[in-house]
């Protein structure tokens, strides 16, 4: 059977279009326009592009959006003042502080300061706790996007063996939690795992969120598995800058049933899920 290369851009466009319709209908019914605030500290080129894409998609979905830019050298207090002000605004339902922050700023303090009801990244400890206890909450966008892809590709995930490579708070752990809630049998692989490849070869679903370019090769993959590549790694090939994932796409595509490409796979779905979370937050308000 030929491999299905999952088009995350197309799926994301579809979801954003559906949400735009929903926003239109809700506003016609007299509901407030959902509002998303994004805070960007400094001018890191990758973060600047991510923020631009998020705002573009928010606007496509009919959301009201604001971007607050702070200088690279801003103080913790200045950043906290911005978050506090956004926490109090009635027209803002979702707040996202683009990470990573410059080293002199505490990400933990900022994550903990955002009101859990406006935490559209799903990183606040209250939302993390709700997710791990299986209660409705705002779920981190990247794993939520991966789950959406998997459900559309495979339908019911019950009984599947899912292996998640990576155990970060923003991708690996919430991904494992979501797969567990979808009734998968879940294994988590990390840097101390012995023979990661052997464990991964048992996976019906393999999610790679490592940050190591092309770590997952075809000898890590069971024939017919569905492979989700979260990684975004900038490399240089023949003097040209290129983005590659955590999976060796060429080799693995020859072995699996379906795979997400990098770019154009998980990335766009992450943004669609940010819009989804903002809508959820606005509805709960
Ligand atoms: P982190 O660096 O926070 O976590 C990486 C994880 O991979 C850690 O748990 C680490 O293990 C594990 N790991 C590292 N090396 C190995 C190895 N050789 N074998 C097995 N496990 C290993 O990364 P993130 O989770 O934040 O991001 C992962 C990737 O996803 C990055 O490329 C990032 O750019 C990308 N990303 C993409 C997004 C998107 O929208 N597409 C969004 C967020 C991230 P240990 O805990 O033991 O150190």
UniProtKB/TrEMBL annotation:
Any one GO molecular-function label of the UniProt entry: methylenetetrahydrofolate dehydrogenase (NADP+) activity
Residue stretches making up the Tetrahydrofolate dehydrogenase/cyclohydrolase NAD(P)-binding domain: 140-284
UniProt pathway: One-carbon metabolism; tetrahydrofolate interconversion
SUPFAM superfamilies the record matches: Aminoacid dehydrogenase-like, N-terminal domain, NAD(P)-binding Rossmann-fold domains
Stretches assigned to the Tetrahydrofolate dehydrogenase/cyclohydrolase catalytic domain: 6-121
Gene Ontology cellular component terms for the protein in this record: cytosol
Its EC number(s): 1.5.1.5, 3.5.4.9
HAMAP family the UniProt entry points to: THF_DHG_CYH (MF_01576)
Family: Belongs to the tetrahydrofolate dehydrogenase/cyclohydrolase family.
Subunit structure: Homodimer.
Function according to Swiss-Prot or TrEMBL: Catalyzes the oxidation of 5,10-methylenetetrahydrofolate to 5,10-methenyltetrahydrofolate and then the hydrolysis of 5,10-methenyltetrahydrofolate to 10-formyltetrahydrofolate.
Protein name: Bifunctional protein FolD
Organism: Enterovibrio norvegicus FF-454
